[in-house]
Design goal:
heterotetramer; A alpha/beta (about 200); B alpha+beta (about 150); C alpha+beta (about 375); D mainly alpha (about 325); C: about 375 residues; alpha+beta; Cytochrome-c3 Hydrogenase, chain B; 3-stranded antiparallel beta sheet; about 50% helix; D: about 325 residues; mainly alpha; about 65% helix; globular
């Protein structure tokens, strides 16, 4: 099953973005971003192509929107300053260090800028699929808002994902709609905390 | 019908082959080491808990209190302190505590120590009644060693 | 085999294959709903030895996470070291010294043989045979002594570093390895005569615990469990990492899908690992055992990477998400037995209790690797 | 009142037999651990006494000092009777075993029948123990013990019936006397009676293993599945009594095999027969029983029953018919 055919099959469900990555550097061949509700379709397409589920990972991008917003404001300020003054001073203004490392400090108090809604960061769910007979690792990503993270479950298509999803729910609190039994897998039965969130304090 | 008998015969034959093997081992010498009476020598690279290396001439430890080992340790087992002698340049080691209960013997400290002041010791049968028997004061141990 | 028809009166009872039970090799609890001696429903309960390595990964630097990898699967710790070290080298683009690659392959394959030997002993012990366990431990002791003379530890190794290994191997180790391989080669026929060809063993394993290739794919099973069901998937051949592409060795695949197939896959893998070691010892180049000037401060560029290696139990994958600083942003550890065990619930439906335990033994479980 | 010398003699023999059984049970444990050790190239008990000879006494003392906990929810009556029901029949059936020409407690004419009668009580003991201790693992193992013993009682009895046909008597003393002279006229080599004699000895040996839940057939107390099977709930001496009962049964099985097939106290070359030959043969058989235990894995339950119903019983019936035909003709 050539890579192009898989890419074309996945394009059929109109994902947000498909990107072919170079295996040696990144470790996977195809990187597909889909909306939260397209996850099951993507899984069905890959299931037909004889892929097997390797892992389901959650990533918490706390503070990312903040950083992007600050970055955008800085860019805008830098561009305005550059227009107004000579390029030399503008270069020094833009020298501020890289976006704030999202240390587990609570989200920096966002200065009450003009836009109304406070920025909601998002949690990313990454599905790794791979084939037995051919070197072809496909990654499906979705992003869900942090305040009510919900992703449809693919355990109907891949029973193997059942435990992976339960574990991701344990660590991130992402609710998998339609999952047969979302009780804690690795944490104690009565655990209501989600340790891998960046703002988790013991 | 034939394979019914063939299976019985080959089956019992495999049983006798198995018994022949075990009886041969019954008469061979024993391979185990009787631990409390005989002990095995530890190889030179055995990783026991770390110990300060004594500098031959000065009799002190080679440690220059740079704190690299303290920073390298993943579980924060090493706490050390030193102070500047009046005239002399470098620092002199005054306190070197190793909390061996948290140490995972990964060797990052020994690797990060430029003057090679610490090295793995080779004693393995440590026995203690409570946890702080394993909080070693390496300076005291170095003096006791000779 | 034993056709199982649910009895009408449906008086099933729940049997707890408790957290400590001789057949679970560690703290795994299986809730068995039993009807007489037949297993109606088996549900493994995990989490008894869960230490949250992934959170530890997020507040340690890249180099400081190394000892954790050895603690996940202590039977094949060097493969987990290898997986983590190659993942960071791939992400940060660190070059690995040629000699170090060969040292890694030799020690990794030795560790694989010791893991298979321990599994062999424990598996036959599950089925009631006692002596093969001690013969296997006798051989395994030789490997542990060899690796101890080089790495300094016997079980939870922390020997690999980014760009190479901790210290060099000497001729004594090479001589010991070749002597050990010759010794194990003479003893393998004994193991086959004592266990594999034994009529009781054959009756216990053939046709027991069928795991079809489709079930393996649906559950993501890898390693000897998948290779026992006819799936030719071995990362050393499939995604050749390190210098595995330079050795010629076969990947044993059996298509009977039963416990005997999984057993034979592992026994043949011991032979293949010995072949790899011989070729690696023959081709061992000279030169530094560590790329010079690799600093302990590693800063992989932003983004996420995936890297998988072949351990004795299957493909161990690491998904790194790095934000360019010296501590990982997110470290996902994909353990092979986690997926292999997830098919136990469906595979053991309707089996007898001793057969279900034979199936669990043939999955070669290491519980700390499942719970992480 | 004057004691009839016969009563005194039987009482003395009873004390001797119980001592023999108890001592045997203790020192078989030592023999088993030593032999298992050397098969696995390690030493086995060595610390307590020379060559670990005092180890059984140490074990006995340890077992006795353990507190006898009767877990609640247990049926106290069954729980207490079970160990006794396993131990007593084992010792009782020593009464009829002729250790040598004169050394026999009671020379009963139907000695063989007495032994088999007592052998079946032992199964009942295990069943009551498992049922009494209300433990799921014990119940599973009790079900296994019952069906296993039933399955292996039949081939054993059929082989013994063929033998009784040949020897014509059930009196153990006469059976041994009929095997006098060298080993060529032991029952195992009495090919003129039936060419399948060695095979029937093998069948008898396998059934003896299965009766005493030993070696490849130890389904009852399968460590890796049922932990300790029928006696999971028994602490200290309760377990100790079960253990002694099991070892006493093994000794009886070995004695029976020796008497019926290997010519009891007869000497292989017809020289001065005596109890020493009897003991040598018993311990040779027990050595093999232990040797088998440490070599083979455990069979599954249905292949255990298949082995009995599909292989042992047909062969033993064929042997029965063949022997009766041969006796008729010659």
């Amino acid at each position: 099953m050539k890579l192009a055919a898989i890419k074309q099959a996945l394009a059929a469900i109109s994902p947000l973005a498909i990107e072919q990555t170079e295996y040696a550097g990144k470790g996977f061949v195809l990187d597909v971003k889909v909306a939260a509700d397209q996850v099951v379709e993507a899984a069905i397409v890959l299931d037909k192509e004889d892929f097997f589920i390797e892992a389901v990972t959650g990533v918490d991008w706390l503070g990312e929107k903040e950083a992007l917003k600050k970055e955008a404001e800085k860019q805008a300020a830098a561009a305005a300053a550059a227009k107004a003054k000579a390029a030399a001073e503008a270069a020094e203004a833009a020298g501020e260090e890289a976006p704030a490392a999202p240390a587990p400090a609570p989200a920096p108090a966002s200065v009450p800028s003009e836009d109304v809604a406070p920025l909601i960061d998002d949690l990313e769910v990454v599905y790794d699929f791979n084939r037995y007979d051919q070197l072809c690792r496909v990654v499906i990503r979705t992003r869900v808002p942090r305040d009510n993270p919900e992703v449809p479950t693919i355990s109907k298509v891949y029973p193997g994902a059942n435990w992976h999803e339960r574990e991701t729910h344990d660590f991130f609190g992402i609710k998998f709609i339609g999952h047969p039994d979302l009780s804690p897998l690795l944490l104690p039965e009565d655990a209501d905390y989600h340790p891998l969130l960046k703002d988790f304090t013991v | 019908m034939i394979d019914y008998f063939k299976e019985i015969i080959s089956g019992t034959w495999s049983l006798f082959v198995g018994m022949a093997i075990t009886i041969r081992y019954f008469f061979q010498p024993v391979v185990t080491v009787q631990y409390p009476h005989e002990t095995l020598p530890m190889p030179p690279r055995f990783r026991g808990h770390i110990d300060l290396v004594k500098d031959e001439e000065s009799g002190q430890s080679k440690c220059i209190v740079c704190g690299m080992c303290q920073k390298a340790c993943p579980s924060g087992c090493i706490t050390l302190a030193g102070e500047k002698p009046e005239g002399g340049k470098g620092k002199v080691l005054t306190k070197y505590i190793l909390d061996f209960t948290k140490c995972s013997l990964c060797g990052l400290c020994v690797e990060s120590c430029k003057p090679e002041a610490i090295a793995f010791s080779r004693d393995y049968n440590l026995a203690g009644l409570n946890r702080n028997d394993y909080v070693f004061d390496l300076i005291k141990r170095m003096e006791e060693r000779n | 085999m034993s056709a199982f028809a649910q009895s009408q009166t449906n008086e099933t009872f729940v049997l707890n294959l408790g957290p400590q039970h001789p057949a679970t090799h560690g703290v795994l609890r299986v809730k068995l709903v039993m009807d007489g001696e037949y297993v109606v429903e088996a549900e493994p309960v995990l989490g008894y030895i869960h230490r949250m390595h992934e959170k530890m990964g997020e507040n340690r630097t890249w180099a400081q996470f190394l000892p954790n990898t050895g603690r996940m699967d202590y039977l094949h710790a060097l493969a987990f070291n290898h997986g983590y070290v190659t993942a960071v080298e791939r992400a940060a683009g660190i070059e690995v010294a040629e000699r170090a690659e060969y040292i890694r392959v030799i020690t990794n394959e030795l560790n694989r043989i010791s893991s298979h030997l321990l599994w062999f002993g424990a598996f036959v012990l599950d089925l009631g045979g006692f002596s093969p366990l001690l013969y296997a431990f006798d051989d395994r002791e030789h490997i542990l002594d060899l690796l101890e003379s080089v790495t300094g530890s016997r079980l939870t190794y922390c020997y690999y570093r980014f760009g190479g290994v901790y210290n060099d191997i000497d001729d004594g180790f090479l001589a010991g390895t070749t002597a050990f391989i010759k010794r194990l080669r003479d003893r393998m026929p004994m193991y086959h005569n004592l266990v594999t060809k034994n009529i009781i063993m054959m009756k216990r394993l053939e046709g027991i615990g069928p795991v079809s290739a489709e079930m393996c794919r649906k559950y993501g099973a890898t390693g000897p469990v998948a290779r026992g069901s006819g799936i030719d998937f071995d990362l050393r051949k499939h995604e050749p990492y390190s210098v595995y592409s330079e050795f010629d060795f076969e990947v044993p695949v059996y298509t009977e899908c039963d416990s005997m197939a999984r057993y034979m896959v592992r026994m043949d893998e011991i032979e293949q690992s010995m072949r790899i070691i011989e070729q690696a010892v023959a081709k061992l180049p000279d030169g530094p055992f560590m790329t010079p000037k690799v600093s302990k401060i590693v800063k992989p560029p932003k983004g996420d990477y995936y890297n998988a290696v072949e351990t004795a139990r299957g493909s161990f994958g690491i998904r790194l998400v790095s934000d360019g600083t010296n501590t990982p942003y997110r470290l996902k550890l994909r353990s092979p037995t986690f997926s292999n065990l997830s098919l136990f619930g469906e595979a053991s439906r309707g089996m007898l209790l001793p057969d279900a335990l034979a199936l669990m033994g043939s999955l070669d479980l290491v519980i700390p690797e499942i719970d992480r | 009142m004057s004691l009839d010398p016969e009563v005194v003699r039987v009482l003395a023999f009873l004390v001797g037999v119980i001592a023999f059984a108890a001592l045997n049970a203790a020192y078989l444990v030592w023999l088993e651990r030593k032999e298992a050790g050397h098969i696995q190239r390690r030493i086995g008990p060595k610390e307590v006494g020379p060559f670990g000879l005092l180890q059984p006494l140490a074990d006995g003392a340890k077992l006795m000092t353990k507190q006898l906990i009767v877990p609640d929810g247990v049926d106290p009556v069954l729980f207490k009777i079970a160990p006794i029901m396993v131990m007593v029949p084992a010792i009782m059936s020593f009464v009829t075993i002729p250790f040598s020409d004169t050394l026999v407690a009671r020379n009963i004419d139907i000695g063989l029948l007495v032994i088999f009668a007592f052998a079946s009580v032992n199964v009942l003991g295990l069943l009551l123990g498992a049922w009494g201790s209300r433990n799921k693992y014990a119940i599973i193992s009790a079900a296994r013990v019952v069906s296993q013993n039933v399955a292996y009682e039949i081939p054993m009895l059929v082989t013994v019936v063929t033998l009784v046909m040949i020897t014509g008597t059930m009196n153990l003393h006469e059976i041994v006397m009929s095997q006098q002279g060298g080993f060529w006229n032991w029952n195992i080599l009495r090919l003129n009676a039936s060419p399948l004699m060695p095979i029937s000895f093998l069948i008898f040996f396998v059934c003896m293993l299965a009766e005493t839940n030993r070696a490849p057939f130890d389904m009852a107390e399968a460590e890796s599945e049922l932990i300790a099977g029928a006696f999971t709930e028994y602490p200290g001496m309760g377990f100790g009594v079960f253990f002694m009962g099991e070892y006493a049964n093994i000794v009886i099985g070995a004695c029976l095999a020796t008497i019926l097939f290997l010519g009891g106290w007869q000497c292989p070359f017809g020289l001065y027969p005596g109890v020493h030959w009897f003991l040598i043969k018993i311990y040779a058989i027990i050595f093999t029983v232990i040797w088998i235990r440490w070599t083979f894995p455990r069979t599954t339950f249905y292949s255990l029953l298949n082995l009995s119903w599909k292989i042992l019983i047909p062969i033993s019936f064929f042997n029965l018919i063949l022997t009766s035909a041969m006796l008729k003709v010659f």
